[in-house]
Amino acid sequence: MGCKAQVRFMSVKTALSRSGLPDLEYALNPYVGCQHGCLYCYAPNYVGDTDVKANWGRLVVVKENLGDVLLEEVLKKKRGVAGLGTITDAYQQVESIYGLARLSLKILLTHGFRVSIQTKSTLVIKDIDVLMKYKDRVDIGFTITNPNYEKAKLVEPCSPPPAERIKILRLLSETGLRTWVFIGPLIDFRDGEFEKDMEKLILQVKDYVDVIYYDHMRLKPNIYLLDDPYRLMLVKSALNKDTLLRIIENLCIEHGVKCKPAFSDIKQQKLYGNSLDEVNG
To answer: Is pTM beyond 0.70 here?
Structure first.
């Protein structure tokens, strides 16, 4: 699963950061950088480590003392909802080696915090024992932008195939865990099949989610550095956002699925709620 990346280590002073994301009081990111290397990712714009930023998807920094710092913080901070992996995927491939997501999950849940996980990775299934033990205080969401693997891997080159994500989504849902899907950003691959693809995706996941969230393509500086045709495709998807949003909303109504926009019209810096302190610890 995924692509190989160079690994570095760092010590951090903080683990939990204040989050500006809706319904999250805190953000926790066990790693800096993300092996998935998604072309549309906004995170490189908020990373203070210039090496990680320049080698997005190829370099990941492991917060080696995260567990010790988090243990101190959960005794002092007010309990709330922590987003696990808001600017990195906490379950990217390196998690299978270093286990910082699992460690963080156990610390947060045993100290009375709620945890919301968002991932593209099937590795989250390895923590099913912890998730089930605290099922009333966790939810798990999968980001899926397109059900077609050939299309998805164009913009998510090192992420697991969508079908594998949906399989794990189903398994988690069938255990009674609260699950959801994030369709975002909305990407029009300019092949005339956007509506067909979105309908297929909605039908594939609707029985295994409490809600489907969606969001349009939000242009960030790193997008303009991409080579064509990716830059052009993503820019056009952003410019055509109203049409794409209307298609998603109509499909949700047609198929009786609870769907919600992921974000309200708030300032971009609040939208993602990640400061350099959060990114770098």
So the answer is: yes
